[in-house]
Specification:
709 residues, 7-stranded mixed β-sheet, 6-stranded parallel β-sheet, 22 strands, 14% strand, elongated, disordered N terminus
Length: 709
Amino acid sequence: MATRQRAARKAAPAPVTLSKADLLDIYRLMLLSRRLDDKEIQLKRQNKIYFQISGAGHEAVLVAAGKVLRPAYDWFYPYYRDRALCLTLGMTPTEMLLAAVGAAEDPNSGGRQMPSHWGHKQLNIVSQSSPTGTQFLQSVGCAEAWLRYNRIDDINDKPIQGDEVVYCSAGDGTTSEGEWWEALNSASNLKLPVLFLIEDNKYAISVPIEVQTAGGSVSKLVGNFPNLLIEEVDGSDPVLSYEAILRAADWCRQRKGPAIVHAHVIRPYSHSLSDDEILYKPPREREEEAKRDPLKTFPKRLLEEGAATESEIDAIKAQVEEEIQVATDMALASPQPKPETATLWVYSPDVDPTSEQFDTEDDPHFTGEPTTMVDLLNVCLKDEMARDPRILVFGEDVADVSREQYLKEVKGKGGVFKVTWGLQRQFGSNRVYNSPLAEANIVGRAIGLATRGLKPVVEIQFFDYIWPAYHQLRNELATMRWRSNNAFTAPVVVRVTYGGYLKGGSVYHSQTGAVIFTSIPGLRVICPSTALDASGLLRTAIRCDDPVIFLEHKHLYRQTYNKAPNPGPNFMIPFGKAKVVREGTAVTVVTYGAVVQRALVAAKELEEKDGVSVEIIDLRSLSPVDWETIEASIKKTNKVIVAYEDAYSWGYGAEIAARIADQCFPWLDAPVKRVASTDTFVAYAPDLEDYILPQVEDLAQAMRELHAF
């Protein structure tokens, strides 16, 4: 640990001397930021923009940060109060006001996000979202990208500078989020060059610091993290802030570890225009804050110290007002996005995983004896990692062993189901490694790595425990391309074991719930039922340019009925291509995952006993869905069952059934029937589990009833 508190200021290096030009430019940028806030407040009251949140009171430390750090060289994960930082890095007032009016030319998001949600591809300002704290883990992943690129010799084109810093800021309230502590843990453990700026204005909307933070000081709480430099500074003083951030940046550039600058700032305006701080801040507190306002204290100091004259200050004020007026006129005259562009950038416009480019299913090059889904997934990962050195595999227990010196002594773990066994031995610990036991950590870091051009294929050990990562999956991973107007992408593959039908799984090892992810635009969701399909679909997932949730059913990992030989290193199945696994004429069953085999057994029984011909469609791809194959089958059979492992009510099959009723009604001779799990959780006792999950007899009964309708 390296800590420098304000009380230890005597031990600090000699103060940095800033030139007169530097000091005047610092004032100009601080004033420009404040007056832009004021202009937006005015426009909001005139109903010319729709939201406003300011950076007032934070300008001094943010301009200092922008002066120390390097645009388009370092990387930036700002938060909504960081207007002054972005101006200092090179974002223009016009670009900011384009965001405020929601203009098509807004470089932050093309009118898709609220103003003050910063993002600028050319400046390495990564698209910011609204949730507080999600940026922490992504910034760690972004910094980790330097580490991986630096250590992986097989990557020829390394988009790193060698001493870049990843800046990540947040308010004091956001340090109450669990992801803050996960981020600090990994950044310190891996000695990553992340500069965390905590802008402490003592309030999270109306909740004060003593309610948020034990002891009232986050920098004191984190004092025992190793490899971490801590700087505490008056963030209303731009010169002291510059010195503190310079020391922190140097620490990171020397690769000594991460740094925290704990900056004490003020918030002279309410949290946003949706908030009124008079309701919870008494006048005396607001008056005391006003005495520290850098827009009042800094120009006064410049005059007193002879660094500026009254005429120079006045000239800066006039220049700023003129610049803002020009920017306002340009923004208000800028066209709004065309309504039809709303559907652009949900998925990659360049790489279409549903296309023929990804369809080599009819030309497998089989070698070896038939083997299990686990084995073919393992082979696919090995083939893909050999093909593309940018692929990283990490998660809980995925490595053979974390302590490399044991590799010669032990067989290796390689995942709790052995899907990643041997990958670390073959590709090394810089490409295959264990993560902390923290699902948000896995996905958040993966997003940051993917933003820098690496290809994370991460594992969430059990679907039942994916929920800590849901924030990152839903609000960050799925939205990255769309919210940034295609400026940033995060093509992460998230492998996750899934489902029941394993004795003893019970409530917390048998969950399904695919619908929770298929309902999210921007995610591809895949669920193979055979070893061959798993191989082809995983390869497509890795090679496509969209985030993928890859569901691997635990029950299917080692079944003998779904084995296949190795189909070769270029075997791919496109997304959105279902498979008719049994031809029939009387009833269609639409299903996926572990229910496929049960439907096949039931259909065989029905044909042998009742002479009823049942057609079975294995969806394989849950989002997108092959509606063409479904419709063609229904037009032939005129009756359809949707069978799925989710709970009956509100499950994945409910949407499929509704869409069939909407699109195929003219060809239906009976209501759409569903077979699914009971509206309960999965139980431990075998008889209870069998009753809860759809079984062969349930499917056979439904087929008989529908055929007789």
